[in-house]
Structures are given as structure tokens and as C-alpha cells.
């Protein structure tokens, strides 16, 4: 079977060649999706912006209590997950009562609505860490791995999934059918 063109691994640039060779092998076997499903059997249940808001604030209360409050948390289907560095964090300056007030927003790419909890958590940890550190530097990733020790593993696995989708693979965690009979709690 043909090896995929190097561009097929665009979500994985920067990882070690030996690791990428293993990924190429999985792709060649067509087993990348199966591998991810075995490792992550289920998706999270954070479906709405409201649920995402609560999810983010729970993590923030636990690890970033003293950081400034967030004005908005939402899924954004227009966000491109990689171009926007896995998510976006914006600071909007508004004049309020004569004082310039910065408002922090966290937007999460729509594709993250239907992924395992570990990956959503990883993205949220990334965005929360930006409340304290703006750049993607050593201190930034130290903070990410302090909050979530498996941060790098989860980011890599998310990138494997994006690669799977990019190669025409089906979504692995479809949303439950609308109006389905199953109750959730
Ligand atoms: Zn970032």
C-alpha cells in the first residue's frame, strides 16, 4: 500500500521521526481509528456552551482561582483547530465607567464537542494557562503539565485524530441521535 504523502501528517509536524514512522505504519494498516477508539472508548458529555462554561469554571476554580474572571466561554464552529493553536484566547478591551477593562474569552473549536473528555480537558487547560502566560514557552507548558500531567500525550492523541479525519476517516464519537430515547443523567 502507498505511503501517505508527508502533507498527510501536517497535524504532527515537529514530532520525532521515529514516532511519525509508527504513525505512518498505522495509517498504512488503516488502524489509526481503531487504536484511538480502544484508548478512548467514549466522548465527553459537554455538548452546549452552558455546559462548557461550567466545565471551564470548575477547572479554573481548582487550578487558576486567582486569575481574572472569564466573560465568555463557547464552542465556535468557525474556529480552525490548528490554525488557532487548538483554541483561542482573546482579550477584549472595553471602556467601562471610565476605566479600561479587559474581558477574557475562551472559544473552543467545534470539533471538540465530540471527542473524549481527556482532549477537551487538555484544550481547556491550554486556554486557562494562557490567562497567566501568553506565549507558548517553557513556562507555559510547565503550567499545562502541572495542571494535567498527561497534557502532551493527550495533545498528541488529539493530533492523531485530526490526522485520521484529514485522511477521510469517519468521526469516531458521533453525537447521540437528537431526540433519542435514552435518558442521561
Ligand atoms: Zn495557545
Secondary-structure blueprint of this entry?
Elements: H1 17-29, H2 32-39, H3 49-63, E1 70-76, E2 88-96, E3 99-109, H4 117-129, H5 138-147, H6 151-166
Parallel strand pairs: 1-3
Antiparallel strand pairs: 2-3
Helix pairs in contact: 4-5, 4-6
- What CATH calls the topology of one domain is Zincin-like
**CA distance, first residue to last residue:** 46 Å
The residue fraction in helices comes out at: 40-55%
Work out the strand percent: 5-15%
Taking Cα atoms only, what radius of gyration do you get, to the nearest Å? 18 Å
Could you walk me through the main structural features you see in this protein, from its secondary elements to its overall organization?
Residues 178-185 have low confidence and may be disordered. It contains six helices and three strands; from the N terminus they run αααβββααα. It has a three-stranded mixed β-sheet with strand order 1-3-2. The protein has helices spanning 17-29, 32-39, 49-63, 117-129, 138-147, 151-166, and strands at residues 70-76, 88-96, 99-109. The protein has a domain at 65-150: 2-Layer Sandwich (Zincin-like). By secondary structure, it is of the alpha+beta class. The structure holds zinc ion (ZN). Zinc ion binds next to loops.
Amino acid at each position: 500500500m502507498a505511503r501517505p504523502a508527508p502533507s498527510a501528517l501536517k497535524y504532527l509536524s515537529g514530532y520525532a521521526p521515529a514516532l511519525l514512522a509508527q504513525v505512518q505504519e498505522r495509517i498504512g494498516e488503516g488502524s489509526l481509528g481503531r487504536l484511538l477508539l480502544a484508548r478512548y472508548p467514549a466522548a465527553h458529555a459537554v455538548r452546549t456552551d452552558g455546559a462548557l462554561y461550567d466545565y471551564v469554571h470548575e477547572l479554573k476554580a481548582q487550578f487558576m482561582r486567582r486569575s481574572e474572571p472569564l466573560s465568555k466561554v463557547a464552542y465556535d464552529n468557525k474556529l480552525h483547530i490548528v490554525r488557532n493553536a487548538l483554541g483561542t484566547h482573546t482579550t477584549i478591551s472595553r471602556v467601562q465607567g471610565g476605566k479600561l477593562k479587559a474581558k477574557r474569552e475562551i472559544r473552543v473549536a467545534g470539533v471538540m464537542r465530540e471527542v473524549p473528555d481527556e482532549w477537551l480537558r487538555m484544550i481547556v487547560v491550554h486556554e486557562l494557562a494562557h490567562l497567566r502566560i501568553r506565549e507558548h514557552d517553557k513556562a507555559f507548558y510547565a503550567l499545562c503539565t502541572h495542571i494535567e500531567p498527561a497534557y502532551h500525550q493527550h495533545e498528541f492523541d488529539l493530533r492523531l485524530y485530526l490526522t485520521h479525519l484529514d485522511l477521510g476517516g469517519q468521526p469516531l464519537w458521533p453525537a447521540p441521535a437528537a431526540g433519542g430515547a435514552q435518558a442521561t443523567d
